Sequence to fold (174 residues):
Amino acid sequence: MSILFLLVFQSWQGLVASLGFFFAIGYAILAVVAGANAKDPNLKSKPWLRGMSVVAPISFALSAGILYWSGWHQVWLSMILFAISIPIAVGVMMKDRKVFTPKVLVHGLWFVAFMVFIFAMSAIGSFGGAGWIPQPWDWILVAVGSLAIYFWGQRESIAWMTSPAAEEAKGIYY
Fold:
């Protein structure tokens, strides 16, 4: 497996850069979850950080910036891995048809849109892309676009958390 990863990423530095890219994706997802928890009317406990409704979208936009700033080469390579892994993950989740139905998976389309947005901006932007959008306008576009996707993701996350399928999943997964 190590040889395969080194063949794909071509160097130890390339592998480490990819891990950083995937960590930034994790931070973006956590920002959406934290923001959704802060807005969830059914949540019994308060968020651990005051002002989460401000901190979470800023964190998401900064995570999007880290993804974008990692450069076109890193983005397209990572997107290939996502194109392979997302259908596998969906297939594994769909094995439990009682909880994970195609209707439930619609709540995750914001994430696919986010990845497509980062891919497109990276392709046309100034960090190894075509350079059609100069700095700082490329970053401004990434920030504004990612904020729109953040609020979409937050709304979908709250819809998932308040759905009957989420209640069912609580007894099975956590």
User: Anything to note?
Assistant: Residues 2-38+48-173 form one domain. The chain has a mean pLDDT of 84. The CA atoms of residues 7 and 50 lie 45 Å apart. The first helix runs from residue 2 to 9.
